[in-house]
Design a protein that fits this description.
Length: 274
Amino acid sequence: MQIDGKTQLYGVVGNPVKHSLSPVFQNRTFESLGINAVYLPFELPIGNFEETFKGLLNIENFKGCNITVPFKERVLKFGEPSEEVIEIGSANTVKKSPKGAIFLYNTDWIGFLNHLKELTDPKGKKVLVLGAGGTAKAVVYALKRAKAEVYIWNRTLQKAVNLAKKFQVEVLSKIETLKGFDILVNTTSVGLKENDPYLFDYNLIEPSMVVYDVIYRETPLVRVAKQKGAIADNGLKMLLYQGVESFKIWTGKEPNVNELWKVLKEASEKSLKR
Ligand code: ATR
């Protein structure tokens, strides 16, 4: 890649962000499509996000970025939100127009839905979502849009009640059986560490279920689900698919998804070995 005076700047804004796998595949897309741009991680200070982000937006050749934890809500004051951003309440994609206007999008929901649809069609299915944080909002929005029947369980019940009210779905206060559920989605951070305690008794998973964990690696939940005969997968492809949607928003171009999947899988395996 030839960096010169006209190279455009993209990136992922978060804290921490050094572990992010997005630069690996976004840079490959720019290169493969011959676009003169780079994509970098930007670790912004949590206490001084607003001032720093404003400075980033003002850089002339800065054209857009992804936003990750913990800034997805704090970014909302910086631009015009899409309909989905308003509904979900958070943005993960920022685009600067040629005239300098800032537009905000959410591609997490579509990244999740595109991957889930490869495993099963959620339309009309009974789905249990674990968690009621930021990621759960995008997931519940996606499932509602796909016309699934959604139940939310969360450690802190009140948060599940609030989220269920917002999206007009149901609450499950205690997981005693999973009979009748077709799909289970984990949106909590439990499983990030191998020795995290189980969220519930994973032996309740039915072989007929599809189990989806938004965490990028094979978690104990995914592993047990597979052992029980269920279809199960982690969120690495959701990461790819949200990134692909962001890329399309920035450039209007269609990346080679198969090529990127190979690149991302390799990078993920390498980072797990470290
Ligand atoms: P994100 O943006 O990744 O969704 P978040 O908004 O901080 O992050 O939400 C984290 C989710 O993980 C919440 O649903 C949280 O449950 P609480 O609302 O009860 O805090 C859930 N979570 C985190 N640690 C957990 C644990 N040890 N057991 C159960 N749920 C946990």
